[in-house]
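Standup notes
- DV: blocked on the single-chain target, sequence here:
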Amino acid sequence: MGTLTDLDRRLIAALREDGRAPVATLARNLGVARATVNSRLERLIANGTIVGFTVRVREEVEPLAIHAIAFIEVEGRSTDRVIRALRGLSEITSLHTTNGGWDLVAELRTESLSAFDKVLGQIRSVEGIVNSETSLLLSTVMR
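- DV (later): unblocked, structure below
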C-alpha cells in the first residue's frame, strides 16, 4: 500500500458514501476525468488499499437490530483463551485487542433485547473475563 493523495482520500470518501456511484458521477463530483478515477480505482484495488465493496442495509430493515459495543477486561495472561471462547459466539461480529483500560472490544448484534441479555451473560461467564462494560449503539451518524 502506498501513500494516499488528497484525491485518493476524496475518492474513498465518495465510495463510502455511495459504493455504486458510476465512474462518470465520481469524476464529475471530484472534478477530474473519468480516466483518472478509473486509474485511481485500479491502483487502490491493486495495492490493497481497497479490499472490497459491500452493501449497507438501512438499519430499520436489519434483522439483527440490537447493536452494541462491549469493552472487556481480561485477567492476567488469559487473553488467548478468552479470544478463543468469544470466537464461538455468533453474536460477536468483530473482536479487537486494544490498549488502555480495556483489553478487548467486541461488536455485538442480536435480534432482540432478550438475546442481547443472554449473550452478555455468556460473555461475562467466560473464564478469564474480570470486568466488562457494554453500550448499546442507538443510531449511526457516520460510517
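- Follow-up: The mean pLDDT is 89.
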